[in-house]
Amino acid sequence: MHILDILLKKRNGGTLSREEIQFAIDRYTAGDIPDYQMSALLMAVFINGMDDSETGALTEAMLHSGDVLDLSDIPGRKVDKHSTGGVGDKTSLILGPIAAAAGVRVPMISGRGLGHTGGTLDKLEAIPGFRVGLTEAEFRRGIAEIGFCLVGQTSRIAPADRKIYALRDVTATVDSIPLIVASIMSKKLAEGIDALVLDVKTGRGAFMKTLADSRRLARALVSTGNAVGKKTIALITEMSQPLGTLVGNALEVEEAILTLRGEGPDDLTALSLELAAEMILLAGLADDLPAARRIARDQVESGRALEIMRRQVAFQGGDPAVVDDPGRLPAAPHRVSVKAPRAGHVQAIDAEKIGLAVVHLGGGRLTKEDLIDPAVGIRLIRKVGEVVAVGEPLAEVHYSGPDRLERAWPLGAAAFQIGPEPAGPPPLIHERIE
Amino acid sequence: MHILDILLKKRNGGTLSREEIQFAIDRYTAGDIPDYQMSALLMAVFINGMDDSETGALTEAMLHSGDVLDLSDIPGRKVDKHSTGGVGDKTSLILGPIAAAAGVRVPMISGRGLGHTGGTLDKLEAIPGFRVGLTEAEFRRGIAEIGFCLVGQTSRIAPADRKIYALRDVTATVDSIPLIVASIMSKKLAEGIDALVLDVKTGRGAFMKTLADSRRLARALVSTGNAVGKKTIALITEMSQPLGTLVGNALEVEEAILTLRGEGPDDLTALSLELAAEMILLAGLADDLPAARRIARDQVESGRALEIMRRQVAFQGGDPAVVDDPGRLPAAPHRVSVKAPRAGHVQAIDAEKIGLAVVHLGGGRLTKEDLIDPAVGIRLIRKVGEVVAVGEPLAEVHYSGPDRLERAWPLGAAAFQIGPEPAGPPPLIHERIE
């Protein structure tokens, strides 16, 4: 087998065999195929596509390029949730404890913030002492004893994906559905899960801006997950405005805690419960979705989910007192309000602009080396559909210094669109794909 | 401007601007754009194509990546011929002297053998003492004083092409018409020519195997040449069987000399005269093609063309006595005949197999480091359309030792196809495209 024949075949629109895909991935990971050949192959895949069987083979080749956790010795079904990335999306911090409280085992390997979207690891690290770099033994113990544990990706998980992702990033081959699917699924399957719930975001703040593109991605993810024997379902959910009202690392932990106490904003509460219910259903702990929803709600109302969070934070080295007193989280020294320039109805809040504003405040990374300021962020006071008078506050910016504020301010202010027409809040969950 | 935006545009099927193409080529040649980005761009160009204006811009960007000869101080029109590569194709050695004798200035920068096809430089080096590495001053003097001079490509001519060609070779992006056109034309235009005749080969021994593909390539070459202000015409000529009867470096020099004496085989003579006539016409030395053909024939019949060859060989350090006595050329120590396994009509002689057989005899290179044996080759005794009896010789193999012969023999023997049906010789010139 030779990489040139594989390049030729995909270039001409052919379908690669499982063996050809495995060969290309194995040899590239081993360093026997140079970057310039892999980048040509990625471009050919981008333009000519991959069918379901190729995408499945690519996923498995990338999955088996590294370690695959085997959690079968831990009793109970292991189910995770993965989101394609949004702004203000702290559902992992909420649904993990809810599902674990209901008896699901949730082995979560999370990422850092990427572009304008936040990362679960960065958020949890806002809790003083919290460690995401657990050993495998610690991670397994967390899953077995608490039911929910969360770590960062190690270099031993899907190394092919890390190498290929870096190359896609610099060769304009990022937004290809088969490549996205293989990247996501190879990492998730390495967690040793039995089933997976996907939250595919759609709209202005999402990777996929249109419902049609989000649907294509969701279908490809679900079909690949099911093809490799892991029951997978996807919800397509709205990401035109940020989820919830708080954006920024410590602020999002605070909002997650409020939601687990039953005091969270409607959209965040509804989506977290729905995703948790899907996990409970996939774990076989409910007969149908309405029953699973009742179980999920009960974990919040009984305080059991909050107790899981308390134990998980403590287990991972964090200060568990923040769960009862979020005031212990880092807070920014300064606050300033964004005021409505005119009266009217909030038509839209551009999630991408809000996300970028938080990055500029220091809450995300502009380069890989940037340190994150966990305290900064934005509190949305009005959301889409609400009415404002002129001069009323729309949002509150939590910032560390005037230079940071100066860069973030124009984005934050431009995010709000106010008009005379009444606007309803956008639908939260568009579709369920299984 | 950023290479990622250029990649994105071509990936999505867009048309690149002149500035974008120039940026990509300049920065790649300078080493600022890495191979893995250029290979992704080449693959996107391969699959999504380039229109005439993009191909022209690519050609000019590659042309101006290095030195461009200015021969305008040498009186007379400078016209060259370029062939897309064939087997037994020694027309350059014949038409150069004919055109020069008629008053055309022929500044020829030639290449080495590539794959199964021979290279003009390798052929001329079969003449004892012949030097292809002239200085620019020597080359100019040869053009001015003799009218025909021939050198190898220097590293200062179209360095972008050399770098890109090496990358295409290892990324399955060789046979893309815009990339072939820019590669050929950027090197030819660097010669300082006023006009160009192209010999686009078609058939089994050619790069383009079908007439339709050859026509597409010829049209793209002609339109690019004319777009950059150099009058360009193309002949599409047959390359299913080798041209002439001798294949191999010294053997081809011998056949060129015979042809300049008026004693060459019909096909080689006819094609050389026709290409020379096109050059004479493009140089403005004849009113129409019939007049140009008469002028070309007269240069052979009068012996003036042979005299040009004698002077050119001497000017380039070669032994001019070979022109009168080809027996002075290197000769292989052994000869063996390929005999007809059955009686019948020669249906086909696979030029690619004959070319590869000569490579295996040592007449070409399997790796870049291989030394060439100028003496070896194959003499075709029968050509397509002729009748043979069983056991009659079809070809004579000139070889240096049994190990070489062993590797070449199966290819040489398999090249001949003999069948019961009468077969006409294939047409020599299929189309003229201007």
Low-confidence stretches of chain A: none
Q: What is the CA-atom radius of gyration of chain A, in angstroms?
A: 22 Å
Oligomer: homodimer
Number of helices of chain A: 16
* Helix content percent band of chain A: 40-55%
The total strand number of chain A stands at: 13
What does this structure look like?
The structure is a homodimer of 434-residue chains. Chain A has 16 helices and 13 strands. In chain A, helix 5 packs parallel to helix 11 (249-260), helix 5 (91-101) packs across helix 14 (304-315) and helix 9 (177-189) packs across helix 10 (211-227). With 434 residues, chain A is of the alpha/beta class. Chain A has helices at residues 3-11, 18-30, 35-48, 52-63, 91-101, 120-124, 136-145, 159-169, 177-189, 211-227, 249-260, 266-282, 289-301, 304-315, 351-363, 402-415, and strands spanning 79-83, 106-110, 148-152, 195-202, 231-238, 246-247, 334-339, 344-349, 377-380, 387-388, 393-399, 416-419, 429-433. Helices cover 45% and strands 15% of the residues of chain A. In chain A, strands 1-4-5-13 form a 4-stranded mixed sheet, sandwiched between helices. A 4-stranded antiparallel sheet of chain A has the order 6-9-11-7, sandwiched between helices. A 3-stranded antiparallel sheet of chain A has the order 10-8-12. The model of chain A has no long low-confidence stretch (mean pLDDT 94). The relative contact order of chain A is 0.14. At the A-B interface, helix 1 and helix 3 of A face helix 1 and helix 3 of B.
